[in-house]
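SUBJECT: A protein chain and its fold
Encoding: whole-number codes for local backbone shapes
RECORD BEGINS BELOW THIS LINE
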Amino acid sequence: MSDLDPQQARDLLDQAGRLGSAARSGASWPQIACLLGIGGVSAMFAVALYFVGHTDGRLVALPLVVAGVWFAILITVMVRFARATKAGFGKRWGQAMAAWTVAWVFTVVGSTVWWVGELWFAIASAALLTLVTTLGAWREARQ
């Protein structure tokens, strides 16, 4: 290796710092996009359950399957293209997914058992699912 003078060493360290910052700043975009996609699919699922409540209840499998396919696509793309994660990502992701799971189960049970065919519940559920996933994505983007 060649000898570097102090200025060249500082320049190389600055460049390494910029490259590291650039890599970290873009590290969470696949996860953020996945969370927002999950929110969108979930909100549309809540609306679909409302319509199922006004038709044949056996049709509930259709929005479940379509949502499941989209969840699989979103997770696959996230895993495939996420090359790095920010420190603490696993904890934040776990918290976001736990909050989403609670909202999702509440939506499914509420739409199929307690408030079948109730428009207000479909709107509230879609808003809740959107809020939970958007907050998770926002939190990840701000890290």
